[in-house]
Amino acid sequence: MAWVGNLNPGISDEEVVALAAESGRTILTFDKDFGTLTFQHGVSAPAGVILFRVRADSPTHSTRAIVDLLNSPRVWAGHFTVVDSNRIRMLKLPETDI
User: What proportions of the chain, in percent to the nearest 5, are helix, strand and coil?
Assistant: First the structure.
């Protein structure tokens, strides 16, 4: 696991996607801009994007939700996943050259 804030603080969302694509990593984010990048601009990480739209009541709550999700038997690659408090939606990523 890598955190962009430690690796390269201040890089753009497009650079985050490129870094994830180069390293084969899934993007975990609370930033809705990744949905715009993916579906309006066709920029996405092949290993997948997981957007959390849950209330971050505390770091412990957020961490527990993330760990529970990642331990579930799902295939993140090729999907844009939206996690909210009531459901998990997985959308097929559009084809991209990244």
Answer: 35, 20, 45
